[in-house]
Amino acid sequence: MANDHTNIPNDLSAFWMPFTANRQYKKAPRLFTAAKDMHYTTADGRQVLDGTAGLWCCNAGHARPKITEAVQKQVAELDYAPAFQMGHPKAFELASTIRDIAPKGMEHVFFTNSGSESVETALKIALAYQRAIGQGTRTRLVGREKGYHGVNFGGISVGGLVNNRRMFGQHLNGTLHLPHTHLIDKNAYTKGQPEHGWELADDLERMVALHGEETIAAVIVEPMAGSAGVIMPPKGYLERLRALTKKYGILLIFDEVITGFGRLGSSFAAEHFDVQPDLITTAKGLTNGVIPMGAVLATSEIHDAFMTGPEHMIELFHGYTYSGNPVACAAGLATLETYREEDLFNRADSMAEYWQEALHSLKGLPHVIDIRNMGLIGAVELEPIAGEPTKRAFNAFLEAYDKGVLIRTTGDIIAMSPPLIIEKEHIDQLIGTLADVLKSLD
Fold first, then answer.
1. Residues 192-235: pLDDT tens digits?
2. What family is this protein classified in (predicted)?
C-alpha cells in the first residue's frame, strides 16, 4: 500500500526484484514515479538523466505522445485477440513494417514478448528447420563466452555469463561456446571496432572437426555484446563467422535485442556491419519499452521450409498467448513511426562522434582501465577492488544516481546507452557527472 504523500510504498517485502541486490536496495530504495523525454522523476521529486534508455529499450525517450496515444486508443478498441488460428490487422501491419526496415532477405516475423522469448524461439526454429530439411542430426547449439541471450534455459545454455548459469545446474545438452573477444590487453581504448581478435571465429572450425558439422544446428552471437559490458566485434570477425557457418550448413543467429532499432545508427547491427544472418532476435526498442514485445526475423528460406504438408496442419508448434498482442502491436507501430518521423537512426549516427569524444575524455581518470564505444553506446571499464569484484562500479552507480544521472553496471564495467533523442548538453552532463564520480571513487 502506497503512502500518498511521498509516493514511497510502506512495504517493499513482497516484490522479489530481478537482477537486484534486494536487501541493499530495500534499505535505501531508488524509486522512479514519472518519466519524460530524457529524464526520470524520483519519488522525492528529483530529475535523473537517463543514460541507459531505461534498460537499453527506451530508444525514443520517455512518454512520447504518439506511442502513448496509440496504446490508449488500442486498449479501448481491441484489448486482446488470440494469435492461434486467429488474427487482427495490426499484427500483420507491424510485421510488414518491421520487414520494410529489416536487412535485405529478412522476410518473415514471429512475435514474442521479450528478448529471452525471442532467443528461445530462434533456437527452436533453428533446430526445427534442420529437421525440416532432413538434417535432424544437427542438435548442437553454439554460443559464446560472455554472451548474454536472456534468462530462459535455452538462453542461459548458449549464454556465457557465469553467474547467469552456475545457480541453475543442468542446461541444454550439447551446447558449445566460442571464445569471447574481450581482449583488453590488445584492444584497450578502441573507438569503434577493435583491430585484434577476428581469428577467434576460427574456433568454430575446431568444433566442427571435433563434433562433426552434421551435429551443429546454429551459432548465436550478439553482433555487439551489450550485457557483458559493451564488447565490440573485431574487424572481420562477423564476416569470418558468417563464412564458416555457410561453409558447414550452420545457421547464424544475430541476437539484436539491444542493437536493433537504431542503437548503432542503423536499423539493425546486421545492416551496420553488412553481414547477413539467417535469424535475428529483437525486443526492447521494438516498442520503446512501453509494452513487452519481441520478434524473430527469418529469411524466406527458413520460413518456406516449414510450409509443406497438408494446408490445414500447423507448421510450427510454437507460440505464446500474447504473441502479436494488439496493444503491443499498436505500441510497436507508433514507435517505428516515431523513429521514422524524427529520423532517429540517422540522428544517432550523427551524434556518435560527439559521444565518442566525450566518452574518451574520461581516459586517465582514477581506476579507468578501458573505454570503448560504437554508435550511441559506450563502456568505461574500472579496475576491480582487490577481493571485492563489482563493488567499485556499483559504488559509481549509486553515486551517479545521487548526482542525478542513471548509468548501468555489469561487473566492474559502466555501460551507457542513452535514448537516441539525446542532445549535446545531455552528453556533457552525463559524462561530466561520471567524471566527477570517478574522481571521487575509492
1. 999 999 999 999 999 999 999 999 999 999 999 999 999 999 99
2. Belongs to the class-III pyridoxal-phosphate-dependent aminotransferase family.
Determine the Cα–Cα distance for residues 180 and 176; give it in Å rounded to an integer: 12
Q: Which residues of the chain have pLDDT under 70?
A: 1-7
Q: How many residues can be counted in the chain?
A: 442
Residue-by-residue DSSP string for 228-284:
TT-BPPPTTHHHHHHHHHHHTT-EEEEE-TTTTTTTTSSSSHHHHHT---SEEEE-G
The amino acid occupying position 127 is L
CATH (domain of 319): 3.40.640.10
Among candidates 151, 139, 129, which has minimal Cα distance to 217?
139
Backbone angles phi, psi at 438, to 5 degrees: -65, -35
Contact 404, 437 (CB under 8 A): no
Contact at 8 Å (CB) between 96 and 334? no
- With a CB cutoff of 8 Å and minimum separation 6, the contacts of 163 are none
Cell numbers found for residue 435: 567524471
The answer to whether residues 316 and 414 belong to one domain is: no
Does 246 share its domain with 320? yes
Angstrom distance (rounded) from CA 162 to CA 180 = 13
3 HSE (CA, 13 A, CB side): 9
Cell of 60: 525514443
Query: 3-class DSSP state for residue 3?
Result: coil
H or E element: which one contains 50? strand 47-50
37: its cell numbers: 523525454
Half-sphere exposure of 164 (CA within 13 A, CB side): 24
Of 311, 341, 371, the one marking the end of a domain is 341
Strand ranges of the sheet holding 408-410, from the earlier edge strand across to the other edge:
368-374, 377-382, 413-416, 408-410
Reported in sequence order, the residue ranges of 99-225 that DSSP labels E, i.e. its strands, are 106-112, 140-144, 176-178, 216-221
Q: Model-level pTM? A: 0.97
Residue numbers of the domain that contains 236: 68-341
